[in-house]
Design brief:
Layout lengths: L5 E2 L9 E3 L23 H4 L5 H7 L6 E3 L2 H7 L7 E3 L1 H7 L4 E6 L10 H13 L4 E6 L3 H13 L2 E7 H6 L1 H9 L3 E5 L5 H9 L7 H14 L3 E3 L6 H21 L5 E5 L4 H15 L6 E7 L4 H4 L1 E6 L8 E6 L21 H8 L4 E5 L1 H15 L7 H18 L4 E6 L7 H8 L10 H11 L1
Parallel strand pairs: 5-15, 6-7, 6-9, 7-8, 10-11, 10-15, 11-14
Antiparallel strand pairs: 1-4, 2-3, 4-5, 12-13
Helix pairs in contact: 2-11, 3-5, 4-15, 5-6, 6-8, 9-10, 11-12, 15-16
Bound molecules: pyridoxal-5'-phosphate.
Length: 451
């Protein structure tokens, strides 16, 4: 029989609903709370910052399925459904009996999964009469996705880009500008938060936490201007479930069911997206699939962080979020997987980890690039430095299967391609990259500051 490499769904099979796992979790995540009153956050509390429907989705604990607006499905057609691919080349190189599949989210025009949430976020804001959005971006993937989504739905966008990335990733900046967004290096003098940070430390190269503070401040002060976040929050994970819902149908086409599902982990959105639709069968006791989140050793919130209420940003403008965290002042090493340099994990994933429904592993930077290069040479696609964490974890599972002689089925999410991250590959190939360790003392010190 001829072997199938790619499993392709027709456009008519783009899901019509997202999956809200919270509705089916026995132990619900704790609510976000207001830092002043300590009261749980209600949808209305979020209206000043987020579109109304997004605010309602954020706190929805009852509806397992939420309709995808026709206008959003229409834009999804630009790149969805994305292919599910059998990694025959990688299997052969590893000489493993495991079957390895990956969901290829790198085919979106922005090169990552982030457009899956950027489109609905822009759409719901437009519905509300919002004219302008603000956001932050680290390595630039979220900013580029929101820039395109805003252009599609007729909104203006201002992006605070972490200063070091603004300088090191000029092409992501030009992508955002090509799609019509205004890009500002953060910390900047345009906000109180930025001015305070620059005054305290004039050479500060910026962080996601700072950029979030600046974007929120601008949104709060500008009429008809709202804020958008590309990860961590429940409504972002909700939108990303389109990945797993498609993958479920495609695995059925392949005639297999995954034993283990893997995603790289920044704030949790792509991991949630590939996992939650499959996890619903585990919640119902129908399947015993394992779910593995792969994070960088240098930013180990899931494997070494503490579960507690913490701010989502550096200054403390956000509600308090129940999360595995390294502390909102944690300054991760400057690894190339910029999208994974975030101090906390979303509240749903955090609860699932407490309940042992998912697992986490940490991966060293050099191992991620070794895995990325093997993947590029066997499957052809150059993966994003973030996605290489999932590839490395998948390779570890495939090698374990080889030792055990088991025909395990592995599914991982390829969250993006690395074509705009070639300077990172350059450095790796030149032997200039290193691993970054975090000491227990450093983690303890940041968590102490929270108490
Ligand atoms: C942003 C990003 C990530 C990490 O974010 P999550 O919310 O954890 O998914 C991973 N991969 C790529 C390519 C990204 O752009």
């Amino acid at each position: 029989m001829e072997k199938t490499k790619k499993f392709i769904l027709p456009e008519s099979e783009i899901p019509t609903q997202w999956y809200n796992i919270v509705a089916e979790m026995q132990n619900k995540p704790k609510p976000m709370i207001n830092p002043q009153t300590k009261e749980p956050i209600k949808a209305e509390d979020l209206f000043p910052l987020f579109a109304e429907e997004l605010s309602r989705q954020e706190v929805n604990t009852t509806d397992a399925w939420i309709d995808i607006p026709e206008e959003v499905r229409d834009k999804y057609k630009i790149y969805r459904p994305t292919p599910l691919v059998r990694a025959y080349g990688l299997e052969k190189a590893l000489d493993t009996p495991a079957h390895i599949y990956f969901k290829n989210e790198s085919v979106s025009p922005v090169g990552s999964h982030k457009l899956n949430s950027a489109l609905p976020q822009a759409y719901y804001n437009k519905l509300d009469g919002t004219t302008n959005l603000t956001t932050e971006t680290g390595a630039g993937q979220w900013g580029t996705a929101l820039a395109l989504a805003c252009k599609m739905f007729g909104l203006e966008l201002a992006v605070y880009m972490v200063k070091i990335s603004y300088e090191q990733k000029p092409y992501r900046r030009s992508l955002m500008q090509t799609w019509g967004a205004q890009v500002i290096a953060s910390p900047s003098m345009s906000t109180k938060a930025g001015r305070k940070i620059i005054t305290d430390n004039p050479t500060y190269q910026g962080s996601l936490g700072t950029a979030i503070s600046e974007a929120i401040e601008l949104a709060m002060q500008t009429p008809h201007c709202k804020y958008a976040l590309g990860s961590v929050l429940n409504h972002v994970s909700l939108h990303q479930t389109i990945i797993g819902l498609e993958a479920e149908k495609q695995m059925e086409m392949a005639g297999e069911y995954p034993d283990v599902i893997i995603g790289c982990f920044g704030g949790g959105s792509n991991f949630s997206g590939i996992s939650f639709p499959f996890l619903r069968h585990k919640l119902k006791g129908e399947k015993n699939t394992r779910f593995v989140a792969a994070e960088p050793t240098s930013c180990p919130k899931l494997t070494r962080g503490s579960f507690q209420y913490d701010f989502g940003d550096e200054i403390g403008y956000t509600p308090l979020i129940p999360m595995f965290t390294l502390g909102h002042n944690f300054a991760p090493a400057n690894i190339h997987a910029g999208g994974l340099r975030y101090h906390g994990a979303g509240s749903i994933v955090s609860q699932l980890l407490i309940d042992n429904l998912i697992e986490a592993v940490d991966i060293e930077q050099l191992d991620t690039f070794e895995a990325g290069i093997l993947f590029a040479r066997t499957e052809g696609i150059i993966p994003a430095p973030e996605s290489t964490h999932a590839i490395a974890a998948a390779i570890n599972e495939a090698l374990k299967a080889k030792e055990e002689g088991s025909k395990k089925v592995i599914l991982f999410n390829l969250s993006g391609h690395g074509l705009i991250d070639m300077s990172a590959y350059d450095q790796y190939l030149a032997g200039d990259l290193i691993n970054h360790e975090v000491s227990d003392e450093e983690i303890a010190k940041n968590l102490e500051m929270l108490a």
